[in-house]
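Before relying on records like the one below, remember that each one covers exactly one chain. Contacts with other chains, cofactors or solvent are not represented anywhere in the record.
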Amino acid sequence: MQKKKQNMNEKLNTLRAGVLGSNDGILTVVGVLFSVAVATPNIFTIFIAGLSDLLACAFSMASGEYASVSSQRDAESSAVKVEQKLLQDDISSEIKAVKKYYVSRGISDETSTEIAKELIEKKPLDTVVNTKYGIQLGHYMNPWNAAFSSLVSASLGGIFPLLAMSLTSGIYRWPSTIIAVILSVAITGYLSAKLGNGLAKTAVIRNIIIGILTMAIHFALGKLMNQF
């Protein structure tokens, strides 16, 4: 059961990284597409600019996620090593630390002492790293999984507005791109709320507003640059 729970937590963390990567992919690509499309009608130029930004965003997200998760794992591993040594050399201070944790949550001094001693006796390392650092042993997200998830999701997120802008023409180009962006950010907002146990409606509305603002700002920037 413990192993299944750990695997599920890692999958959820990977999915969260994917959803965030997808949202960033959508918004960064849209920013470039709108700025360039306003400045030039050349569809090849628009496509190359959007594709270049999509690839840059995807690899940037992947490398950032890898570095972030790796740093977190290193910090957690270091904390675990420190606590392993303290459990061997100074177990009384560890019991006091666990006791202090439960006292701070409103449990009486006597009961906290009993809880601390019992937990230290049964699961010493698990107990101290959890109460002192909020770390759950074995719940370490794989940095490669997080990086790959961000890479793929950012690419998939950015591809929809890129295709909408590139494959449609005339009066349909702008409306189809705007619709593609709104639908994409709405989906990522919904998924992020579900994965984070948040309010789906609020997340969707928030993401749509951010998407519309992104489009408006970069459209205005494109108009401004086109005057020079």
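The two ends are 64 Å apart (CA to CA).
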